[in-house]
Amino acid sequence: MQTFVAEVDRITNLTHDVREIELRLLEPTAIDFQPGQFISFDIAVEGKPRPVTRAYSIASPPSRPDRITLVFNRVDHGPGSTYLFSLKGGDRVHFKGPAGTFRLKDDGTRDLLFVATGTGIAPLRAMIWTKLEQGSPRAITLFWGLRSQRDLYYQQELADLSKTYSHFRFVTTLSKPEPGWTGSVGRVTGLVTEQIQSVANLAVYLCGNGGMIKEVTAALNAKGLCPIYREKWYDGEPDAG
Ligand SMILES: Cc1cc2nc3c(=O)[nH]c(=O)nc-3n(C[C@H](O)[C@H](O)[C@H](O)COP(=O)(O)OP(=O)(O)OC[C@H]3O[C@@H](n4cnc5c(N)ncnc54)[C@H](O)[C@@H]3O)c2cc1C
C-alpha cells in the first residue's frame, strides 16, 4: 500500500449527519485504484499509545485519478468520524491505500444489482459511475435504504443518471419515513424480495451494515444461486443508516 498526501478541496454537507469531501492529491498527484476499494487514515487518539486505523471507501470513479471523493456519516465519539468532520478546506491529510477486494468482477453478461444502506452507497457509487462511463450495456439496478426524508442525498444525481442511461434504474426506500413520502417504504430486503424475479442472470454487490448484508443474502439465496460480493462495514441492524 502506498502513502498519499492530499488537500481537502471541497466539503459538502449532504444531510444533517452525512458529509462529502473531495481530496486533491498532492504527493503523488494521482491514485490508481479499482472502483470499490478503500483508503485508510491512521488517527491519533488521546490516551492510546498507537493511532487507530479507519477505512473509507472511495466514492468517485477512477476516471478522475487526481481527486477522490469520500462520503461519511457522524458516529458520536468515534475517532474516525470525528477526525473527518474536523477537516477544513485546505487542510492536508495523509492516507494509505488503495486496498480491498470488493471490486467489480468479470461476470460476463450478467445484469448488475447494487444494494446499499446509508453511506454504504460510497463504493457502489464509484462502481456504478465506472460501469456507466465504460458504456456497459448490462442492466444496472440500485436499491438504497435510508431512514427518513432528512437522510436523503444524491437523489438528483441518480435521477439524472437514470435519464441519461436508460439501462440504469434506482429505488431509494425509507425505513421510517415522515408523512408525505410517496416513494418506497421499508428495507432494501423487501425490494429484493418483491422486485427481483430471478437471480439466474444477476451479479450482486452489497455494502453496509452486517444486518442488511445477512438479510439480503438470505433473500437472494431463496431465489437461487448467483455471485454475491459483500463489503460489511460493521455489525448493525438491517435498517441502520
Ligand atoms: C472497508 C471499509 C470501508 C468503509 N468505508 C466507509 C465510508 O466510505 N464511509 C463511512 O462513513 N464509513 C465507512 N466505513 C466505516 C468506518 O471505517 C468507521 O468504522 C466509521 O467511520 C466509524 O469509525 P469511528 O472511529 O468514528 O467510530 P468507532 O468508535 O470505530 O465506531 C463506533 C461504532 O460505530 C458503529 N459504526 C461503524 N461505522 C458506522 C457507520 N458508518 N455508521 C454508523 N455506525 C457505525 C460500529 O458499531 C462501531 O462499533 C468503512 C469501513 C470499512 C471496513
UniProtKB/TrEMBL annotation:
GO annotation (BP), single: pyrimidine nucleotide biosynthetic process
Taxonomic lineage: Bacteria, Pseudomonadati, Nitrospirota, Nitrospiria, Nitrospirales
Highest taxon above the source species: Bacteria
Species in which this protein is naturally found: Nitrospira tepida
InterPro entries noted in UniProt: Cbr1-like_FAD-bd_dom, Cyt_c3_hydrogenase_gsu, FAD-bd_FR_type, Flavoprot_Pyr_Nucl_cyt_Rdtase, FNR_nucleotide-bd, MRET, OxRdtase_FAD/NAD-bd, Riboflavin_synthase-like_b-brl
Protein name (database record): FAD-binding FR-type domain-containing protein
Domain called FAD-binding FR-type: residue spans: 1-105
One Gene Ontology MF term: 2 iron, 2 sulfur cluster binding
